[in-house]
Design a protein that fits this description.
Blueprint: E1 2-4, H1 10-22, E2 26-28, H2 29-34, E3 39-41, E4 48-53, H3 61-69, E5 71-73, E6 80-86, H4 93-103, E7 110-115, H5 129-151, H6 164-178, E8 184-186, H7 195-199, E9 205-208, E10 211-214, H8 224-228, E11 234-236
Parallel strand pairs: 1-2, 1-4, 3-5, 4-6, 6-7
Antiparallel strand pairs: 8-11, 9-10
The structure holds flavin mononucleotide and iron/sulfur cluster (SF4) (2 copies).
């Protein structure tokens, strides 16, 4: 069983590729959360996989919450792996996951990371679509190597280029700084199609007089709404309108 979370499709792309190679079922953590499904059953032959993006050098809030709520019947030391997608510097999401799982009596056998397009457009410019496609395609052989390692149940340790204590401290500060939804706003090109509200993984968007309103505390800051809006009407802070949109074309 591979549990994934993905805002713009990168981690879903990786999860589905691993799922095909390792013949594992692939489940969306956001959908499981939305349906209140947190008691899961693991068979003796199954692998347990966690696939998600790094957010500010650590775990997205939704993944952290899911891990703290989930329980597994049938867990008896099966192969357990984490595969994290990132854009520039991955940080310590594997270490954070490892310690949360340890509290549940689950050991992490293997950790992988795959560099993909960095969708944090408050900072990064994604207007060069050919470049985004090149980065996505360059990631495929790396994803295939990860998938083969998972299929063979190989052990793997990822060495972080950052001291975990520093990565964890930065993660906490950055998340506190950015989690408030006040920087979100819409432009006049919004056509009130509701796509943002309907596709938000945490139901953090309410429509008010035809315009999206963000509910602070619910938003996990995946930027799916910003990148999927058909009119590019959602912006976050002062710079995103110059930095374009990205959706992984393989999912
Ligand atoms: C809120 C947020 C914070 C991010 N922080 C980091 C980061 O600290 N380091 C990094 O390399 N990439 C960072 N990224 C980029 C994502 O990890 C990367 O683009 C990932 O592949 C997105 O996966 P997804 O499409 O499955 O959501 C961040 C993205 C978002 C939305
Ligand atoms: S997806 Fe974009 S156009 Fe549609 S309601 Fe949301 S902001 Fe408006
Ligand atoms: S409001 Fe947007 S950024 Fe926040 S969780 Fe929903 S889709 Fe992701």
């Amino acid at each position: 069983m591979i549990l994934y979370f993905s805002g713009t499709g990168n981690s879903r792309h990786l999860a589905e590729l691993i799922g095909r190679q390792a013949h594992e079922r692939v489940c969306d953590m956001a959908e499981l959360m939305r349906s209140g499904t947190t008691a899961l059953c693991l068979s003796a032959e199954e692998r347990l996989g966690w696939v998600f993006p790094t957010h500010f050098w650590g775990m997205p809030a939704l993944v952290r919450e899911f891990v703290s709520r989930v329980s597994f019947s049938g867990y008896a030391g099966q192969y357990c792996f984490a595969a994290v997608t990132y854009g520039m510097v991955c940080g310590n999401p594997h270490g954070q996951l490892r310690s949360l799982l340890r509290d549940k009596g689950i050991g992490l056998t293997a950790s992988f990371s795959v560099r993909m397009v960095d969708v944090w457009t408050p900072l990064f410019n994604l207007t060069d679509k050919a470049r985004s496609l090149r980065i996505t395609q360059a990631a495929i052989p790396v994803m295939e190597r990860v998938a083969r390692a998972v299929a063979d149940k190989r052990r793997a340790k990822r060495i972080s280029c950052l001291p975990p204590l520093i990565a964890d401290a930065v993660h906490k500060i950055m998340y506190q700084h950015h989690r408030p939804t006040s920087p979100f706003h819409t432009t006049d090109s919004c056509i009130a199609c509701r796509l943002c509200a309907d596709s938000c993984p945490t139901n953090a968007i309410e429509m008010n007089a035809g315009r999206p309103m963000w509910v602070t505390g619910e938003c996990t800051l995946c930027l799916r709404c910003l990148h999927h809006c058909p009119r590019f009407a959602i912006q976050y802070g002062p710079h995103t309108h110059r930095h374009g949109q990205f959706v992984n074309p393989y999912v």
